[in-house]
Amino acid sequence: MRKVNMLEAKNSLSRLVEAVESGAETEIIIARNGKPAARLVAVRPAAAGKRPLGLLEGKYPPMTLEQFNATDEEVEALFTGASR
Fold first, then answer.
1. Chain centroid offset of residue 44 CA
2. How many whole angstroms separate alpha carbon 30 and alpha carbon 4?
3. Are 46 and 23 contacting, i.e. CB atoms less than 8 angstroms apart?
4. pTM of this prediction?
5. Is 37 within 8 Å of 31 (Cβ atoms)?
6. Strand partners, 39
7. CA 39 to CA 31: how far, in whole Å?
8. Of all helices (H) and strands (E), which one includes residue 32?
9. Beta strand spans in 1-84 (E)
10. Helix, strand or coil for residue 61?
């Protein structure tokens, strides 16, 4: 959250609107004499960009479904606090 004074808001309104429109800032507080007076927010939140798939590819060793499922009891014990 960015805070700007009234004079800066007057001089750079289009830049401030672009910042909230693009999602670079979620909101901007406009202050008068150092006290918050208004809040500038986007009418519609910026669309989230596409997330890349395979971000962790190659970071973990390959595992079969049987190997993956073999840890089910251990994981359950960690969640429930039960000892094995």
1. 16
2. 5
3. yes
4. 0.53
5. yes
6. 29
7. 9
8. strand 27-32
9. 2-5, 27-32, 35-41
10. coil
